[in-house]
Design a protein that fits this description.
mainly alpha; 3-stranded mixed sheet; 6 helices; 3 strands; single chain
Length: about 120
């Protein structure tokens, strides 16, 4: 299931990945493969937390063991494909010309929406 029906918390649980919250010095999330844990920055807004968790699950899904610019793009791309369904994006775009509204309607961060659109996903 993709789009609004995708639940990254349930997905993490199914994969046996623990999700923990803690203050992080850099970034909003961290995948630690050695202990199968994703750490999320405390006090993130709901949209950002969902997007960050999906991004970190992308690292886990692709077997990333370290961070690199290439891995960050891959994780964003994976998260965007999970979090955004094309029909839901088309409906949001039909209701408003404002991408900020689309983010709210799709429950995704601007970064995830931007990655989805930059990868050639269309809304027409």
């Amino acid at each position: 299931m993709t789009g609004l029906g995708y639940d990254p918390y349930e997905h993490a649980q199914r994969l046996g990945i623990h999700v923990a919250y803690r203050p992080l010095r850099t970034g909003n999330g961290l995948w630690v493969p050695e202990i199968r844990t994703i750490f999320l920055q405390t006090k993130l807004r709901v949209i950002h937390e969902r997007s960050v968790l999906a991004h970190e699950l992308g690292h886990a899904f692709m077997g990333h063991r370290e961070s690199s610019p290439r891995h960050e793009v891959q994780a964003d791309r994976w998260a965007a494909r999970q979090l955004i369904h094309p029909d839901e994006l088309r409906a949001a775009a039909a209701a408003s010309p404002d991408p900020g509204v689309w983010c709210h309607e799709l429950n995704v961060s601007a970064d995830i929406l931007d990655r989805y659109l930059r990868d050639g996903r269309c809304i027409a």
